[in-house]
TrEMBL record:
Membrane topology term: Multi-pass membrane protein
Provenance organism: Caldalkalibacillus thermarum (strain TA2.A1)
Residue ranges of the TM segments: 41-60, 107-134, 154-178, 218-251, 271-294
Protein's name according to its UniProt entry: ABC transporter permease
Record keyword Transmembrane present: yes
GO biological processes: transmembrane transport
InterPro entries to which the protein is assigned, alphabetical: BP-dependent_transpt_permease, MetI-like, MetI-like_sf, OppC_N
Amino acid sequence: MALEPQTNPTVSKGTDVAPASRKRTFMRYVRLLLKSKTGTVGFIIVTGVILMAVFAPYLAPHDPNEINPALMFKPPFWLEGSEPGYILGTDNQGRDLLSRIIYGTQISLLVGISSVVVAGIIGLTVGLIAGYYGGWIDNLLMRVVDAFLAVPNILLALVILGVFVPGVLTLIFVLGVTNWIAYARVVRGEVLTLKEREFVKAARSIGVRNNKIILHHLLPNVFSSFIVISTLSVATTIILEASLSFLGLGIQPPTISWGLMLSAGRDYLATSWWIATFPGLAITITVLGIIFLGDWMRDVLDPRTQVNRR
């Protein structure tokens, strides 16, 4: 007599465990976000900026680079002499300010996120290696860190940008190379403490290789600090990009940048204040939103905070 195939109820139920667990984790983060006022505000601002950058061609009412001498220095819609259809007014070349601000989000996010990725990879690698291996490797890498700390970031960036041709890729490279120090120092400090913990010593005692200890045991435990630093660094990098573009060493025309818009409006503050004011507000609101979201992420990802909630 043939045996009927038997089904394992444990296996069949186990297929839903991972999706259910992910769903519970997602809902938990949603509840924590809604409980935090600053986190909610930051999430709304950051989401809005990202959507503005992605859908800029559909949101911008005019061509951001269209020059119209007949519409130069038109004020915002609520002031006398404004032009219908130009909500935030026009600049010194008759270009729509709202459209330029919307397109400017693309460059700000691109430079901010890309340079933070470059800086994070360098700093995380240096911090993990220096903290775990110690000895002459730690001394050598920390002397490199000290050398970078001896020179202000903005000065080092100006020197490098003075050598290379200014542009988006150059700016991303320069900001990434000059801003990795914070990652290296924080990660190294945490690794120095973590490598003396019991779980690391136990992994060593059973012959686990160093690279696996670094990737599987140390990296997950420093990742929360890494995320917080990265989030706050995006805000700092956006300000640096605007500052360098304001000085003429960052983004170059015809690429649209909030820093370039500030630079164009500085000569008209007394008569046409809106040309520099609205890009400045865009930078301020974006940076505040990123900082708010970063503070919330720090609270959520901090293991000590999670223990206290339980």
